Amino acid sequence: MTVVFWNRKIQQASVEDLREIQLKLLKWQVRRVYEKSVFYHKKFKEAGIKPSQISSLEDIAKLPYTSREELEANFHDVLAVPTSDIATIRMTSGTTGHPLRIAHTKRDIEMIAEASARKLTYHGVTKNDLVQVTAAYGLWQGAWSVHWGAEKIGACIIPTGPGDTERQILMIKQLGTTVLYGVTNYHFRILEVAKALGEDLRNYSLRIGICVAEKPSKEHIRMLKEGFGYEKVVIDYGATEFPGFSVQCEEERDFHHIWADFYLIEVIDPETHEPLEEGERGELVITSLQREAFPLIRYLSRDITEYAGFEKCSCGMSHPKVGVNIDREDFMAKIRGVTVFPGHVEAILSQYSELTGRCQIIADKRTPRQEVTLKVETSRTLSKEEQKSIREKIIEEARNRVGVTFNEVIFVPNGTFGGKFRKTIVIA
Ligand SMILES: [Zn+2]
Question: Residues near 22 by Cβ (< 8 Å), separated by ≥ 6?
Fold first, then answer.
C-alpha cells in the first residue's frame, strides 16, 4: 500500500535527521521556557539546571518531570508568552479540583493543524472528502484538531458535533459524508439508530471511520466496517494536553507514530520513574518541542504503552512508534494489591459474542476480603446454562490473565452502562 504524505520533507526524514531536528528544538524550547515561564524557571533553578547544560538529547534526563497536578495549579505561571498572544484556551476535567487549562498561540494552532493535515492525508483523506465531525466542539480539543486539519487540506467539513443522531444520519445520506470522525461509542450509537430507522449505512458514501477517545477492539472495528461500509477504521490518539500528537501506522496497525518534530518521547517505570529501554512498556513522558504558549517539559502523561522507538517503518516514516494498546492510569484501580485496567477485562469479554464487551467492576473495600463483582452487559438474553458456563470461563480467565478473582459475575441487559466503555467503581 502506498501512503500519501502531506509534508514529504518531514514525514520521510531519516532517523538521523529527526534526531538532529529534535536536539535543535529541545535546546530552543528549554532556553525559552527558562527565560519566559515563571513555573519552569523556578523548577529548573530548584533542580540546579541551566539551559546551557542541554547539549545532547540524553541530557533531557537532567530536567525535572512535570505532573498534571502542577499544570492544574499553575496555569498562569506555566505560560511562556504574554497573555495577549494567547489565541485560544482549552480545558479538561482536573484531578485536583482545578480544571486543567491549556493555552495556544496562533502558531500553536497552526502546528496542530499541520499535524492533523499530515494525519488525514496519510489515512487517505483528500480535498474531495466530506468530513463529518461528530465529536464535541467547545473546550474539548479533539473536534478542533480534526477540523483545523481538514480545513488545511481543503476538505469539506460538516461540524455537526454530537447528538441529534437522526440528523447525523440524514447528513450522511443527503450530503454524502465520506469520513466520519467521532468517539468510538458514538459510531455504535449511530449504527443503532440507523438500524432502528431501517437505514443501511452501507448504501451511502462513507469510506473512512476515525475513532477517538476509546480504543476500539478488533471486533469493534470489524463491526464498524460491516455496519458503515467503511474501507478502513483508524484510531485517533491524543489528549487535550498534547494535541497533534500522533498518527496510527497504516502498515503496522498496532502502533502510532509520534510526530518527532513536535514531541519528544521517553518511557519510564510509572512507579519508580526510572527510564525504560525501547521496546519496554511504561508511562510516556512527553516534551513539546515547538509549543509556544503552554509548553510541556517531561510531562508525566499517565498513558502506559510500549515504546518502540525510532526505526524506519515499512510505511516510509521514521517517526518513533508507541503501541496502540494504551492504558490510561486514571482508569486503573488497585484491587487487593493488584493493578487492574478495565481494558484488560474488556479484552477477555470481547471474545464472547453473547456479551457487548462493556462492564463495570465493583470492588467493595468495606468488606474484609474486598469482594469484587463484575457486571457484564449481554447482547441477548442468556439461558441459565449459558450464564453458568460463561461465568466460569470469565472468572478463570480473569484470574489467570488479569490476576483478579471475581467473587461474582452478574449479567445485565444491553444498554445498562449507557454506552460508556470504561467504568470502574471502587467503593472505598
Ligand atoms: Zn509506519
Answer: 57, 260, 261, 264, 289
Q: Does the pTM of the predicted model rise above 0.70?
A: yes
CB burial string 210-230: b at 16+ within 10 A, e below: bbbbbbbbeebbebbeebbbb
Average pLDDT score, the chain: 91
Q: Rounded to whole angstroms, how far apart are CA atoms 285 and 94? A: 19
β-strands 333-335, 156-158: how paired?
unpaired
Separation of CA 67 and ligand 1 centre (Å):
30
Question: 178 or 374, which is more confident?
Answer: 178
The alpha carbon of 263 and the centre of ligand 1 are apart by a number of angstroms equal to 17
What is the whole-number distance in angstroms between the Cα of residue 151 and the centre of ligand 1? 24
Task: Report the alpha-carbon distance of residue 87 to residue 105 in Å, rounded.
Answer: 5
Q: How far is the CA of 257 from the centre of ligand 1 (A)?
A: 7
pLDDT at 418 over 70: no
Rg (C-alpha) for the chain, rounded Å, is 22
Report whether pLDDT(396) > 90. Answer: yes
Q: How many CB atoms lie within 10 A of CB 57?
A: 15
Q: How far is the CA of 12 from the centre of ligand 1 (A)?
A: 11
pLDDT of 154 over the 60 cut? yes
How many whole angstroms separate alpha carbon 66 and alpha carbon 80?
15
Helix (H) or strand (E) holding 115: helix 106-122
Determine the residue type at 343: G
* CA nearest to 26, candidates 257, 321, 258, 265: 265
For the chain, domains (ranges, CATH) are 8-109+245-330 (3.40.50.12780), 123-236 (3.40.50.980), 332-427 (3.30.300.30)
* Residue ranges with CB less than 5 Å from ion ligand 1: 249, 313, 315
Answer for the pair 394, 376: CB distance below 8 angstroms, yes or no. yes
- In angstroms, what is the span from residue 269 Cα to ligand 1's centroid? 25
Residue-wise over 67-91: b if at least 16 C-beta within 10 A, else e?
A: ebebbbbbbebbbbbeeebbeeebb
Long-range contacts of range 269-278, CB-CB < 8 Å, 24 or more positions apart? 270/302, 270/304, 270/329, 273/65, 275/61, 276/307, 278/307, 278/308, 278/309
Q: Which of 339, 147, 342 is nearest to 236 (CA)?
A: 147
Task: Using DSSP, state whether 307 is helix, strand or coil.
Answer: strand
Q: How many angstroms does the Cα of residue 82 sit away from the middle of ligand 1?
A: 38
